[in-house]
Amino acid sequence: MPTPAPHLVDEILEEIFLRLTTPAELARASTACPRFRRIITDRSFLRRHRKLHPPPLLGLVNVDGSFQPAEAPDPSAPLARALADAADFTYSFVPVPSSGIPWHVRDVRDGRVLLEACQVLETLKDMAVCDPLSRRYVLLPPIPTDLAVQEEYPFDIVPILAPIGDDEDDMSFKVICLAIYGSKLTAFIFSSVTQQWCIVASIGWSLLGVHHGPLGPCMLSTYGFCGLSGFDNESGCFYLASPLLDKLFVLDTQKMEFFTVNHHTGYYILLKLLPGRILEVLARYDDPHRIQDRSMPGIVVGREGYLEMFSLIGDHSPNGSFDLYHTTQQSNGESSNEWRMKNIIPLPGGHDYFTMSAAEGFLFLGATTKDQVDFDRESGPPLSRTDWDVDYFSLEVKTSEVRKVCTSKGKFFHAEHVHWYFGYPPPLSKPSV
């Protein structure tokens, strides 16, 4: 019997290794022999494997940089603990900016961390992208002042890490900055390939259906731009929820253009009228502009051309119950499409919940067992300044499975202070010097 050609053997082995579902299984297989290691560590193979097997959720990164690994019985707990032991989530390997302002975390994607250093109300910021596992980093050049300021000064510039595209080198990265002006919304992008910033999209508020511009720096909490509510790798869209305007603001990173989706249609109108949605009781205890954070929907994109929205409805009295109302809308760009009810997902009892964000096919919630309704404002600080023991839950969109990820100290309102860490990062192209 003739011996198979070496390249055919490699192709067969690659197909076998593609069926290994976890990084731990790949790592064990790569130690068997040099040939296995060469196949498994090849970048084209790793790209195919990541596309077939979504990266595991390993934990969360707080805005101060600390890492909270996923806890048992979560199946990713051993990998998460290994990451916590091996990586440097103090970012001591990244030089402190000349201003002396310490780094804080603004975004996490593909295992990489976007760091930012700026003073209060400062819009032109120092930024860096780093890999806490390999301790490599790249310092970003500042956005040129003439590019950022243009004819008016931005109220804020919100940085986010863009995902790696299918046709892009996985060692490269991009950073998108959303600049909020009085008259428009603009997107800047930095590419590690070109090492330059450029404007890729800009649109006036009136064209987005907003007939009055932002009201200064407070507009971020007022209009819901404090964080991105969801992302889908397949369509490449970011969704910014704006509850007070009944709109989703969408940035399509493939076409690099903005558009909006109307909230106020179909079943969503009924959801707005349910008692647990408006949170009148909590509004008496804290800043009303912050109350929306607990009722902000998590947005993800369905795999078959549907937007999927999860609205938190619950009873905030002691021993009250909470549910997620799952609604869908066809995402073919027609404004007449209505939100339709899909199902109601009950949440584990004994908690008071708030929605946080969505990523990689998961919706994330925070919850506390403390009695929020009986909180005495006269004898203590406002809710938004109080530390609580927060339990973090994930909901997998495909299966509607709710699972506790970990527990950590946190603020009652702090969705923008937590970032979710998935998988292990591809290497950065080079360390900054």
From TrEMBL:
<dbReference type="InterPro" id="IPR036047">
    <property type="entry name" value="F-box-like_dom_sf"/>
</dbReference>
<feature type="domain" description="F-box">
    <location>
        <begin position="8"/>
        <end position="49"/>
    </location>
</feature>
<protein>
    <recommendedName>
        <fullName>F-box domain-containing protein</fullName>
    </recommendedName>
</protein>
<dbReference type="Pfam" id="PF12937">
    <property type="entry name" value="F-box-like"/>
</dbReference>
<dbReference type="InterPro" id="IPR001810">
    <property type="entry name" value="F-box_dom"/>
</dbReference>
